[in-house]
Amino acid sequence: MERVGDFRKISFVHNALPDLSLGEVDTSFSIGGAKLMFPIVVLVESKGDAEKLSGKNKDVPIVAITNGTLDIYTNGVCKEIPEDGHKLIGVGDGLEAAKVVRTGGVPFIKEARLSDFQLYMRQFKIAMFLTNSKNTVMLGKAPVYIMG
What we know:
Layout: E1 10-12, E2 29-31, E3 34-36, E4 41-43, H1 47-56, E5 62-66, E6 69-74, E7 77-82, E8 88-90, H2 94-102, E9 106-110, H3 117-130, H4 136-139, E10 144-146
Parallel strand pairs: 4-5, 4-9, 8-9
Antiparallel strand pairs: 1-10, 2-3, 5-6, 6-7
Helix pairs in contact: 2-3
């Protein structure tokens, strides 16, 4: 699939009668060997900020970029992976995050939007449900329209 920079041009092909319920949607996401419960990461300025924020926000992946490494903190524990090959793309809501995952990227929000994280994850799950994507791998293969 061709890379599309403007996510407003992408529309999912909705499956009006999905084979799964919203509760069955699995939002776990793998990035460089790190298994995350949620595919939207929170990008912060430093490892110190990531460590501090991670301890306060259960299961939310907090990411800092240092010296070509993605430092991914979940529940206060850090997993370091090489930055190369992981396209972090800023998003404004859960639907945009689903489109980023569909196109092979890793959606992120800034720390200032952390209070919207649960809303974005709900929107993300709804996009998965409507595309009949049981997990993020299936979402990565969901049919889409790309408008000219």
